[in-house]
Design goal:
The protein is α/β, with parallel strands linked by helices and 262 residues long. It contains eight helices and eight strands; from the N terminus they run βαβαβαβαββααβαβα. It is globular.
Amino acid sequence: MSVPIVFSTGSLHPFGLERVFGWAAKAGFDGIEVMMDDRWDTHQPAYLAELVERHGLPILALHPPIYAGAWRLGREETLVRSARLARRVSCPLVVAHPPPPGPPLRRWAAGPLAAAREDATVAVENMPANSLGFFGVRRGSCHLPEHLAGVGDVTLDTSHVGASGADLLAAREALAGQVRHVHLSDSNLVVGKDDHRLPGKGRLPLKPFLAALAADGYPGAVSLELKPWPLGTPDPGVILARMRAALEYTRDGLRGTAAEAS
């Protein structure tokens, strides 16, 4: 079975869900990842189900709000509620941002993560390394494969790998048995800079990475999670053309096309 390629609505967050669903359907994506935010449109199951039916695109991942969502709840309760929402809209997976490694991660995994997993598959995302602060102290984040070794299912974000100075192919190997979802985008490999560039427009080995996923029988989806400006925002014609190009790049990679885009 081929790997589904989906489009994250967070890639075009200045636009409403209706337009993003429509563009993703026109471009030929297999599904949608909904980035939840402070708008009720991203939280209400009836409206989300209506979009799925109207555009013929299933929601294959939910991403809880990075900041305050429409529920105005704390991050831990928001994760649990997001998993319940995923069950209601027949979404198979929820992406979760973890706390720093060590005791905070262990407490979170035993508490809200375990509770959320009662309703949905929750894949914990690798985070970007933070750039050095004024005194050269780096805040801790789960940015290395070993940080996520014991948390179960994982979302592997390629831009976050690039921003962490890690090797993408080695990270995939280290987490091969855990990866259930992928956020795909490119990076210029500047530590601390989370680029989310168009695939093929940075320095990550994305084609070999995608080929390795497909060869290993990867069981999840690949979600294009980009920034709005490289997609040509606000021009709808440019946006649609670049969405199609990114989709074709990803399909080529999953088919094992070896040559990287220049």
